Amino acid sequence: MTLIFAHRGSAGTHPENTFAAYLEAERVGVDGIELDVQLTKDNQIVVIHDSTVNRTTNGIGKVKDYTLEEIKQLDNGSWFAPEFDGEKVPTLTEVLEWLQTNKLLLNIELKNETNIVPYLEELVIKEIEKHNLVERVIISSFNHYSIRKINKLNSKIECAILFLEKLYEPWNYATTVRAKGLHSYNPKTSDAMIREAQERGYPVRVFTVNKEERMQQLIAQGCSAIFTDYPERALQVREVVRG
Ligand code: G3P
Ligand code: MG
After folding, report:
1. What is the mean pLDDT of each run of 10 residues along the chain (243 residues)?
2. Please, what are the domains in the chain?
3. Model pTM?
4. Residue 162 near ligand 1, beta carbon < 6 Å
5. From the candidates 14, 49, 131, 183, which is the catalytic residue?
6. Which of the 8 DSSP states describes residue 89?
7. Closest CA to 176 of 168, 186, 166, 188
Protein backbone atom coordinates (compact mmCIF):
# COMPACT_ATOMS: atom_id res chain seq x y z
CA MET A 1 0.00 0.00 0.00
CA THR A 2 1.24 3.47 -0.88
CA LEU A 3 1.89 5.43 2.30
CA ILE A 4 0.76 9.04 2.48
CA PHE A 5 3.16 11.53 4.06
CA ALA A 6 1.92 15.02 4.83
CA HIS A 7 4.56 17.32 3.33
CA ARG A 8 5.66 19.92 5.93
CA GLY A 9 2.49 18.88 7.76
CA SER A 10 -0.50 19.68 5.56
CA ALA A 11 1.16 22.57 3.82
CA GLY A 12 -1.64 23.08 1.29
CA THR A 13 -4.28 23.92 3.85
CA HIS A 14 -2.31 24.98 6.95
CA PRO A 15 0.90 26.93 7.59
CA GLU A 16 3.77 24.56 6.81
CA ASN A 17 5.83 23.04 9.61
CA THR A 18 3.50 24.07 12.44
CA PHE A 19 1.53 22.04 14.94
CA ALA A 20 -1.66 23.27 13.25
CA ALA A 21 -0.47 21.47 10.11
CA TYR A 22 0.63 18.32 11.98
CA LEU A 23 -2.63 18.02 13.89
CA GLU A 24 -4.58 18.40 10.66
CA ALA A 25 -2.49 15.61 9.11
CA GLU A 26 -3.20 13.39 12.09
CA ARG A 27 -6.91 14.25 11.95
CA VAL A 28 -7.28 13.15 8.32
CA GLY A 29 -5.46 9.90 9.04
CA VAL A 30 -2.09 10.13 7.31
CA ASP A 31 0.58 7.47 7.68
CA GLY A 32 3.40 9.95 8.28
CA ILE A 33 4.68 13.49 8.36
CA GLU A 34 7.61 15.07 6.56
CA LEU A 35 9.39 18.04 8.11
CA ASP A 36 12.61 20.04 7.68
CA VAL A 37 15.16 20.71 10.41
CA GLN A 38 17.92 23.22 11.03
CA LEU A 39 19.90 24.50 14.00
CA THR A 40 19.53 27.80 15.82
CA LYS A 41 22.47 29.89 16.97
CA ASP A 42 22.40 28.04 20.30
CA ASN A 43 22.32 24.61 18.59
CA GLN A 44 18.66 23.79 19.14
CA ILE A 45 16.90 21.78 16.43
CA VAL A 46 14.01 23.74 14.95
CA VAL A 47 11.53 22.77 12.28
CA ILE A 48 11.52 25.25 9.42
CA HIS A 49 12.08 24.93 5.68
CA ASP A 50 13.93 28.03 4.45
CA SER A 51 17.33 29.13 5.72
CA THR A 52 15.73 32.46 6.67
CA VAL A 53 12.59 33.18 8.68
CA ASN A 54 11.45 35.80 6.13
CA ARG A 55 8.82 33.89 4.16
CA THR A 56 7.04 31.99 6.93
CA THR A 57 7.23 34.25 9.99
CA ASN A 58 6.89 37.92 10.89
CA GLY A 59 10.66 38.06 11.50
CA ILE A 60 13.60 38.66 9.25
CA GLY A 61 17.05 37.09 9.03
CA LYS A 62 18.74 33.71 9.04
CA VAL A 63 17.53 30.87 11.23
CA LYS A 64 21.11 30.24 12.37
CA ASP A 65 21.35 33.80 13.71
CA TYR A 66 18.38 33.32 16.08
CA THR A 67 18.52 31.71 19.51
CA LEU A 68 15.69 29.34 20.34
CA GLU A 69 14.20 31.91 22.69
CA GLU A 70 14.27 34.55 19.96
CA ILE A 71 12.80 32.34 17.23
CA LYS A 72 10.01 31.27 19.59
CA GLN A 73 8.87 34.91 19.79
CA LEU A 74 8.01 34.90 16.07
CA ASP A 75 4.56 34.43 14.64
CA ASN A 76 4.80 31.41 12.34
CA GLY A 77 1.19 31.25 11.20
CA SER A 78 -0.44 34.51 10.18
CA TRP A 79 1.55 34.78 6.93
CA PHE A 80 -0.67 31.89 5.80
CA ALA A 81 -4.01 33.10 7.20
CA PRO A 82 -4.98 35.33 10.14
CA GLU A 83 -6.58 32.47 12.08
CA PHE A 84 -3.16 30.85 12.50
CA ASP A 85 -1.78 33.84 14.37
CA GLY A 86 0.25 32.61 17.32
CA GLU A 87 1.66 29.43 15.75
CA LYS A 88 5.28 29.04 16.82
CA VAL A 89 8.33 27.54 15.13
CA PRO A 90 8.30 23.99 16.56
CA THR A 91 11.37 22.25 17.95
CA LEU A 92 12.13 18.70 16.88
CA THR A 93 11.82 17.67 20.52
CA GLU A 94 8.23 18.96 20.68
CA VAL A 95 7.35 16.94 17.59
CA LEU A 96 9.00 13.78 18.94
CA GLU A 97 7.11 14.18 22.20
CA TRP A 98 3.84 14.50 20.29
CA LEU A 99 4.72 11.34 18.36
CA GLN A 100 4.55 9.47 21.67
CA THR A 101 0.78 10.07 21.53
CA ASN A 102 0.21 8.50 18.10
CA LYS A 103 1.65 5.95 15.67
CA LEU A 104 2.67 8.23 12.84
CA LEU A 105 5.87 7.76 10.87
CA LEU A 106 8.24 10.69 10.62
CA ASN A 107 10.53 11.74 7.79
CA ILE A 108 13.10 14.21 9.06
CA GLU A 109 14.74 16.11 6.23
CA LEU A 110 18.09 17.60 7.21
CA LYS A 111 18.33 21.05 5.63
CA ASN A 112 22.08 21.20 5.21
CA GLU A 113 22.61 21.01 1.46
CA THR A 114 23.95 24.54 1.08
CA ASN A 115 25.28 25.42 4.53
CA ILE A 116 27.48 23.12 6.56
CA VAL A 117 25.76 22.60 9.89
CA PRO A 118 28.24 21.04 12.32
CA TYR A 119 26.77 18.35 14.57
CA LEU A 120 23.27 18.47 13.07
CA GLU A 121 23.42 14.70 12.47
CA GLU A 122 24.63 13.90 16.00
CA LEU A 123 22.02 16.12 17.63
CA VAL A 124 19.14 14.75 15.55
CA ILE A 125 20.12 11.13 16.23
CA LYS A 126 20.43 11.79 19.94
CA GLU A 127 16.86 13.12 20.04
CA ILE A 128 15.47 10.18 18.05
CA GLU A 129 17.20 7.66 20.31
CA LYS A 130 16.11 9.47 23.45
CA HIS A 131 12.48 9.28 22.32
CA ASN A 132 12.73 5.62 21.23
CA LEU A 133 11.72 6.41 17.68
CA VAL A 134 14.47 4.64 15.72
CA GLU A 135 11.90 2.33 14.08
CA ARG A 136 9.48 5.10 13.10
CA VAL A 137 11.86 7.64 11.60
CA ILE A 138 13.36 8.02 8.13
CA ILE A 139 16.13 10.59 7.71
CA SER A 140 16.61 12.19 4.31
CA SER A 141 18.73 14.92 2.82
CA PHE A 142 19.92 16.38 -0.45
CA ASN A 143 23.34 16.30 1.26
CA HIS A 144 24.40 12.69 0.80
CA TYR A 145 27.57 13.08 2.87
CA SER A 146 25.22 13.71 5.71
CA ILE A 147 23.27 10.54 4.96
CA ARG A 148 26.47 8.50 5.05
CA LYS A 149 27.31 10.09 8.38
CA ILE A 150 23.89 9.25 9.83
CA ASN A 151 24.40 5.62 8.89
CA LYS A 152 27.79 5.59 10.63
CA LEU A 153 26.24 7.05 13.78
CA ASN A 154 23.25 4.70 13.89
CA SER A 155 22.90 2.07 11.17
CA LYS A 156 19.41 1.08 12.40
CA ILE A 157 17.80 4.35 11.28
CA GLU A 158 16.51 4.18 7.73
CA CYS A 159 18.14 6.78 5.49
CA ALA A 160 17.00 8.11 2.14
CA ILE A 161 18.64 10.16 -0.57
CA LEU A 162 16.72 13.12 -1.91
CA PHE A 163 17.40 13.86 -5.57
CA LEU A 164 16.06 16.16 -8.27
CA GLU A 165 17.46 14.53 -11.41
CA LYS A 166 16.82 11.33 -13.29
CA LEU A 167 19.68 9.28 -11.85
CA TYR A 168 20.89 6.14 -13.56
CA GLU A 169 20.01 3.12 -11.38
CA PRO A 170 19.66 5.25 -8.23
CA TRP A 171 19.51 2.12 -6.03
CA ASN A 172 23.18 1.42 -6.89
CA TYR A 173 24.21 4.95 -6.00
CA ALA A 174 22.11 4.90 -2.80
CA THR A 175 24.07 1.86 -1.64
CA THR A 176 27.32 3.85 -1.73
CA VAL A 177 25.99 6.17 0.99
CA ARG A 178 24.13 3.31 2.74
CA ALA A 179 20.70 4.72 1.95
CA LYS A 180 17.71 2.47 1.38
CA GLY A 181 15.03 4.98 0.47
CA LEU A 182 14.88 6.86 -2.83
CA HIS A 183 13.09 10.17 -2.37
CA SER A 184 12.55 11.16 -5.94
CA TYR A 185 11.36 14.42 -7.52
CA ASN A 186 7.96 13.84 -9.08
CA PRO A 187 8.55 15.38 -12.56
CA LYS A 188 11.69 13.24 -13.01
CA THR A 189 10.29 9.98 -11.67
CA SER A 190 9.45 7.23 -14.15
CA ASP A 191 7.23 4.19 -13.64
CA ALA A 192 10.14 1.98 -14.72
CA MET A 193 12.45 3.42 -12.05
CA ILE A 194 9.83 2.87 -9.36
CA ARG A 195 9.29 -0.72 -10.45
CA GLU A 196 12.95 -1.62 -10.79
CA ALA A 197 13.96 0.00 -7.50
CA GLN A 198 11.14 -1.56 -5.52
CA GLU A 199 11.77 -5.02 -7.03
CA ARG A 200 15.27 -4.69 -5.58
CA GLY A 201 13.92 -3.70 -2.17
CA TYR A 202 14.51 0.06 -2.36
CA PRO A 203 11.37 2.00 -1.41
CA VAL A 204 10.60 4.91 -3.72
CA ARG A 205 8.85 7.89 -2.15
CA VAL A 206 7.89 10.67 -4.53
CA PHE A 207 7.71 14.41 -3.74
CA THR A 208 5.65 16.55 -3.94
CA VAL A 209 2.49 15.10 -5.43
CA ASN A 210 -0.54 17.38 -5.29
CA LYS A 211 -2.51 16.53 -8.47
CA GLU A 212 -5.16 13.88 -8.13
CA GLU A 213 -4.36 12.21 -11.41
CA ARG A 214 -0.71 11.70 -10.49
CA MET A 215 -1.66 10.49 -7.01
CA GLN A 216 -3.89 7.92 -8.63
CA GLN A 217 -1.14 6.70 -11.01
CA LEU A 218 1.43 6.32 -8.27
CA ILE A 219 -0.96 4.61 -5.88
CA ALA A 220 -2.23 2.24 -8.59
CA GLN A 221 1.30 1.08 -9.40
CA GLY A 222 2.14 0.49 -5.75
CA CYS A 223 4.71 3.25 -5.28
CA SER A 224 5.99 2.98 -1.66
CA ALA A 225 4.90 6.46 -0.61
CA ILE A 226 4.06 9.95 -1.74
CA PHE A 227 4.63 13.30 -0.06
CA THR A 228 1.76 15.70 -0.52
CA ASP A 229 0.60 19.10 0.67
CA TYR A 230 -2.98 17.75 0.47
CA PRO A 231 -3.03 14.54 2.50
CA GLU A 232 -6.82 14.41 2.79
CA ARG A 233 -7.12 14.40 -1.00
CA ALA A 234 -4.46 11.67 -1.30
CA LEU A 235 -6.19 9.47 1.27
CA GLN A 236 -9.49 9.80 -0.62
CA VAL A 237 -7.75 8.86 -3.88
CA ARG A 238 -6.14 5.86 -2.20
CA GLU A 239 -9.49 4.68 -0.93
CA VAL A 240 -10.98 4.83 -4.42
CA VAL A 241 -8.00 3.11 -6.09
CA ARG A 242 -7.96 0.31 -3.54
CA GLY A 243 -11.73 -0.12 -3.76
O1 G3P B 1 11.41 15.60 1.53
C2 G3P B 1 10.70 15.89 0.38
C3 G3P B 1 10.68 17.38 0.09
O4 G3P B 1 10.32 18.04 1.28
C5 G3P B 1 11.98 17.91 -0.41
O6 G3P B 1 11.92 19.23 -0.82
O7 G3P B 1 12.16 21.66 -0.58
O8 G3P B 1 10.02 20.60 0.04
O9 G3P B 1 12.01 20.29 1.48
P10 G3P B 1 11.51 20.49 0.08
MG1 MG C 1 11.33 18.89 2.96
Report:
1. 97 98 98 98 97 97 97 97 96 98 98 88 98 98 96 97 97 98 98 98 98 98 98 97 88
2. 3-242 (3.20.20.190)
3. 0.98
4. yes
5. 49
6. P
7. 168
